[in-house]
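Changelog note: in this version the structure field was regenerated for every chain. One regenerated record is shown below for reference.
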Amino acid sequence: MGEPRTTCEEAAERGLPREGARTYFVFQDALVPRLRDQLMGLLSEEERGRQRRFIRDSDRDLFLLAHGMLRRVLALHAGVAPQKLRFETGAHGRPELSGPAAVGSLSFNLTHTPGLAACAVANGRAVGVDAEHLAREIDLRAVSARVFSAIERRGLDGLSGEDAREQFFAHWTLKEAYVKALGLGFSLPLRRITTLPTRDGRALLQLEDMEDDASRWTLRTHRAGSQHRIAVALEAGTDAPVTFEELSLA
């Protein structure tokens, strides 16, 4: 049996940690017809238009799940109706909340990958989240040669098979979560960013010749089920509380 899922009521009651973040994820197979109809009713006309433009049903469903979940989660923590949330695009193309006033200083980031959608929510702190399906077809060695640091590549050199794949996606999701938290995209020199995940889900960050201070970031990684990995980067020092919770949208 898997871990118990967090209900929307429990999420609202717990609130957000003052200096931490909550990460919620939902598996795509939870999108039964009744829930599909409910979530569609939460989206804006612009979001519905974007959802319809996907060619494959699975991609339309994943977009609906991700954006419907995000509206539910943000609305719970802001105490407003999901339909009232308004978004705008920031300077580097990153979605941000623009209203209503009740959302206050809520910050968020959203990600989805085949089979899973996840969002991270914090209170006035930069946050980034990334998720990957571990069975994704990818040339681990070729990609790591282009974007991994020397330390990360050395760690991969001694691994093979599933161990190498697991370690690769731990580094990859942590890197992408950090980049998304900064909101600057992949213009950053990725090979100067080193992520060092440990067995307990924590991770260290090392930066080489970059205008940032690694000590202002908390990095966490989480295995969601047997096929997905999620990572979060939070601007809150090196040891802020970050949770990962499977959310029940029913």
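Spot check on this record: The first helix runs from residue 8 to 14. DSSP finds seven helices and twelve strands in the chain.
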